[in-house]
């Protein structure tokens, strides 16, 4: 009777200890802390010296994490890599049933222990389930005060594992809720950006920074898609490594069909970011999530977020990133729309100024010139007539300058042929010792075909180079004239001149470029002596 009473009292104490352990493991919703408390509670209930909780990987083949208790940190460090779930530990992965052994070393599946591992004999393993799914396994070793773990130990650890599954599930749901809240806050911040003036570069940097803060990523990349050239341009790189800034501006080639297919997806999981492309810079070998930045079914770019190796991305993380990327794509679309509106406003202003110059200013100057010409015919003194004719010539030159300005105003904004011509003349000034005069007549930017521009620029650079090397000139003039039928490049200098019969090298190349385009090339003497090169190409050629 006394023995029976003692067993009842012992059972009540163990039950009370189990209830205390269940309450204890649910006091905090941090997942890592919860797992640590579960291992400690299991060791206390079963009187085990060592305990561990192995978290099974997503593919259910090995252990992705291993939380231990009872082992000295120095010994733990000397052992090195954590177990992957092979041998006896793998029994519970392939067959999730409790395992109790008097000596783990004698089991036929035993792999033995790595160097520096403390000796272990008795063993108890119990699966931890969450809603009919195995989350991981509880491993206990070295029963204190007995040779092996008893059936009561197994039952109480099984009961603890059931409660642990609920606690783990709550902690995981809480972690997901926290991440969802963080992603929603970041999405709301991007939405706030949409309400005001969106500056493209600032918006992209904000997108990358918030994505990295929320996800805890090592690196976040924002790449813009260039469909015409089938490539991505890394516009923003936000990472822990200071060298990640070197990625900005780099190009990543991509197949156009693959890019179009990716634009229709919500997200894509990348197992190894370094392996998926020939990255032009420091990209870690880690898993990543890639979400397309697409608006109105048009791929504008991609948002890449690396994932911590200790917390692989789940479906929830991928969906949240996809939602965030969708909002980021709207910010990108709005920024581009604002740039286009500003561009349009500039073009409208330039068109209005060009129209006013043409309809008002030029007409007044032309009328004034006509009046002066009439007065010159009636002037009695020859010097007065000369002065009036000089004024008329000045007015004609002014009209030509204004017309050139009108063409420039009606030309494209940004890079243009006129700009290239000015750059080429400026670049030649150092070698020449002076800056040549540049005149452009007609719609230079809009009328000259794109495939003719490289030929024209090559001829101009060769002509200026020849002046610098052979002419010994003190001045030069470059004129580019465009009519409805042809393009004429005239390069004149006041140097020592050139013999057309001895033309060779670069001069021959200039002539061949003209002939290839159906045009002509002339090398002669300028109005002030020196050399005059005339390169003439039909627009229909």
TrEMBL record:
SUPFAM superfamilies under this entry? ATPase domain of HSP90 chaperone/DNA topoisomerase II/histidine kinase (SSF55874), GAF domain-like (SSF55781)
Keyword Flavoprotein in annotation: no
> Keywords assigned by UniProt?
Kinase, Transferase, Two-component regulatory system
The Histidine kinase/HSP90-like ATPase domain, residue ranges: 451-541
Question: Would the keyword Cell division be found if you checked this record's keyword annotation?
Answer: no
What InterPro entries does the record tag this protein with? GAF, GAF-like_dom_sf, HATPase_C_sf, HATPase_dom, Sensor_HK_TwoCompSys, Sig_transdc_His_kin_sub3_dim/P
Under Pfam families, the record lists: GAF_2 (PF13185), GAF_3 (PF13492), HATPase_c (PF02518), HisKA_3 (PF07730)
Q: Where is the GAF domain?
A: 30-178, 199-342
What's this protein's name? Answer: GAF domain-containing protein
Organism annotation = Paractinoplanes globisporus
Q: What is the lineage of its organism?
A: Bacteria, Bacillati, Actinomycetota, Actinomycetes, Micromonosporales
């Amino acid at each position: 009777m006394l023995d029976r009473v003692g067993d009842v009292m012992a059972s009540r104490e163990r039950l009370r200890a189990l209830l205390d352990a269940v309450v204890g493991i649910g006091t905090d919703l941090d997942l890592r802390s919860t797992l640590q408390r579960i291992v400690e509670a299991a060791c206390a209930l079963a009187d085990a010296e060592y305990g561990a909780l192995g978290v099974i990987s997503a593919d259910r083949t090995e252990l992705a994490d291993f939380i231990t208790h009872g082992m000295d940190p120095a010994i733990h460090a000397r052992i090195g890599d954590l177990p992957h779930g092979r041998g006896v530990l793998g029994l519970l992965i392939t067959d999730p049933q409790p395992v109790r052994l008097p000596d783990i070393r004698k089991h036929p599946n035993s792999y033995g222990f790595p160097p520096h591992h403390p000796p272990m004999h008795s063993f108890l393993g119990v699966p931890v389930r969450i809603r009919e799914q195995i989350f991981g396994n509880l491993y206990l070793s070295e029963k204190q005060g007995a040779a092996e773990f008893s059936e009561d130990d197994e039952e109480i650890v099984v009961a603890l594992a059931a409660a642990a599954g609920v606690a783990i599930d709550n902690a995981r749901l809480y972690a997901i809720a926290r991440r969802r809240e963080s992603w929603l806050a970041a999405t709301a911040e991007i939405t706030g950006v949409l309400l005001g003036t969106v500056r493209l570069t600032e918006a992209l940097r904000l997108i990358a920074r918030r994505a990295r803060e929320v996800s805890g990523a090592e690196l976040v990349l924002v790449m813009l898609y260039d469909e015409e050239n089938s490539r991505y341009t890394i516009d923003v790189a936000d990472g822990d490594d200071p060298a990640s800034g070197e990625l900005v501006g780099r190009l990543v080639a991509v197949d156009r069909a693959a890019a179009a297919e990716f634009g229709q997806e919500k997200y894509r999981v990348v197992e190894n970011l370094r392996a998926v492309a020939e990255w032009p810079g420091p990209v870690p070998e880690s898993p990543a999530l890639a979400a397309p930045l697409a608006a109105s079914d048009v791929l504008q770019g991609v948002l890449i977020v690396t994932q911590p190796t200790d917390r692989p991305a789940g479906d929830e993380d991928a969906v949240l990133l996809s939602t965030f990327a969708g909002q980021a794509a709207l910010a990108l679309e709005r920024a581009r729309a604002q740039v286009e509106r500003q561009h349009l406003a500039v073009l409208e202003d330039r068109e209005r100024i060009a129209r006013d110059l043409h309809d008002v200013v030029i007409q007044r100057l032309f009328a004034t010139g006509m009046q002066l010409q009439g007065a010159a015919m009636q002037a009695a003194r020859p010097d007065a007539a000369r002065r009036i004719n000089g004024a008329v010539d000045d007015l004609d030159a002014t009209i030509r300058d204004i017309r050139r300005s009108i063409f420039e105003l009606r030309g494209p904004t940004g890079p243009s042929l006129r700009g290239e011509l000015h750059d080429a003349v400026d670049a030649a000034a150092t070698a020449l010792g002076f800056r040549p005069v540049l005149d452009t007549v007609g719609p230079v930017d809009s009328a000259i075909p794109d495939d003719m521009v490289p030929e024209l620029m090559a001829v101009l650079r060769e002509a200026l180079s020849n002046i610098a090397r052979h002419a010994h000139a003190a001045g030069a003039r470059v004129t580019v004239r465009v009519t409805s039928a042809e393009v004429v490049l005239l390069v004149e200098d006041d140097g020592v001149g050139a013999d057309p019969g001895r033309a060779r090298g670069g001069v021959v190349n200039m002539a061949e470029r003209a002939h290839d385009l159906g045009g002509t090339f002339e090398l002669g003497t300028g109005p002030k002596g020196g050399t005059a090169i005339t390169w003439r190409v039909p627009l229909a050629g």
